[in-house]
Specification:
- The protein is of the alpha+beta class.
- It has a single domain, classed as Peptide Methionine Sulfoxide Reductase, Chain A.
- It contains 6 helices and 8 strands.
Length: 168
């Protein structure tokens, strides 16, 4: 099993979307790369932490590649917008890819380079090593399962799309 950490705005929809992908064995929402220890949701809302709302993705690379995960992730974010996704605005809603394995960096850089060809504006998605990750409060975990009518900036059609996605 491998891990990658993906930030794509409000983590509720990103987590739900990623959890539906075949080959991803678990997803956990939390706060990545904070400048204070163990930030809370309230710390992010009050701008007391530099953390990004992030999803820890545990996946089986025999069933899905990191490149495939990134391609699917890129379908639900606007990588050219800084500190905003959908109606969510703030530094905690930036897009980012946080790695723990240095050998993943060239693949991620290639994926971002390929993605840039689809946009006129520059890609602002962060690519950084994971410095720290604090698991978010329980009520944030699997939020859209617990609250099916809950707010989400990810188009619900994408949930249906990714349920049908199968590795070629």
């Amino acid at each position: 099993m491998k891990k990658i950490y993906l930030a794509g705005g409000c983590f509720w929809g990103v987590e739900h979307y990623l959890s539906l992908i075949e080959g991803i064995s678990s997803t956990t929402v939390g706060y990545a790369n904070s400048d204070i220890p163990s930030p809370s949701y309230e710390d992010l809302k009050a701008h007391r932490s530099s953390a990004a709302e992030t999803v820890e993705v545990v996946y089986d690379e025999d069933r899905i590649s990191l490149n495939e995960i990134l391609e699917l992730f890129f379908l639900i974010i606007d990588p050219t917008v800084l500190d905003q996704q959908g109606h969510d605005i703030g530094h905690q809603y930036r897009t980012g890819i946080y790695y723990i394995e240095r050998e993943d960096v060239p693949l991620i850089e290639d994926a971002l380079h390929t993605l840039q060809k689809e946009y006129k504006d520059p890609i602002v998605t962060e690519l950084l090593p994971l410095e720290n990750f604090t698991v978010a409060e329980d009520y944030h975990q699997d939020y859209l399962i617990k609250n099916p009518q809950g707010y989400c900036h990810v188009d619900p059609k994408m949930f249906e799309f990714v349920k049908r996605y199968k590795k070629a």
